[in-house]
Amino acid sequence: MPSASRPPVSKALIQRLQWGDLDVxxxxxxxxxxxxxxxxxxxxxxxxxxxGDCSTASVAGAPRQGSAVLVAREPLIACGxxxxxxxxxxxxxxxxxxxxxxDGAAVPPGKVLATLRGDPRVLLAAERILLNFLQRxxxxxxxxxxxxxxxxxxxxxLLDTRKTTPGYRVLEKYAVACGGGWNHRLGLFDRVMLxxxxxxxxxxxxxNARARAPAxxxxxxxxxxxxxxxxxxxxxxxxxxxxxxxxIQAALSAGADVILLDNFTVPQLRRAxxxxxxxxxxxxxxxxxxxxxxxxxxxxLDFVSTGALVHHSVWADxxxxxxx
Length: 324
Description:
Layout: H1 24-40, H2 54-57, E1 66-72, E2 76-77, H3 83-90, E3 95-99, E4 106-107, E5 112-118, H4 120-151, E6 157-159, H5 169-178, E7 192-194, H6 196-201, H7 216-232, E8 238-242, H8 248-254, E9 258-262, H9 266-276, E10 281-285, E11 303-305, H10 308-311, E12 318-323
Parallel strand pairs: 6-11, 7-8, 8-9, 9-10, 10-11
Antiparallel strand pairs: 1-5, 1-12, 2-4, 3-5
């Protein structure tokens, strides 16, 4: 069990983003970028002379009112529904959305996520962008839920990483939270994390791999780096990555809040947790998969982190079906 002197897990270490935590102006901008890619060739050096939805414009005598439903075609965790009104507004509005589920809900195949009623020209033009957002985010949430289930309930929490699609980080981390995971650091701004390349600059990571312990001067440098970090960024947690058991003591002596055990075997993790003895939070990372997660139960780890929650996810199958 953790040492009584160690503080409880706080929002400074991990959190679960909620929809209300996201900046609406940022979300609108993402939606506008997606819309302008589709309607006006955004990103091309030479834009098309004619913009707009040429397909729908070519359909003569289209009705003034239409109805469609967003439907799950496979079991999934719903995510991104808050973007639906923003997308419809970006395409001119004149469509109302009625939701049947909430983000984070587990839905079976055939379940209607939302019913859309209004101008069919808006529905048809916005269809692909709506589905792109929902399929991507629901895919991450669904993939995360599989990992959370594989890890099981207990003290160890499943974390994401900064391995996210550029520009979409908070949305993808929100999707991880909807799937039952926890959000690690949101960026470089919210913790000090001394990883292998930082330690290499200190002469710490360059130790001979066969050495029983890091060189004394490396440990001193590491301690000095943690002291400097606390002065430069007071109030932020300090995390240190180690990739060998003999580096643990130096990280402890330096006063790390979190020790990241990178690519440790299960026996090594068990011994590392016992050695740390609650004097720092423990995080396992590297080589974490659905197959290996069950082996990490019961080891006493505080956290397990993997970028696979995002970068190995597959889009969920969601469709928009027209209703007469």
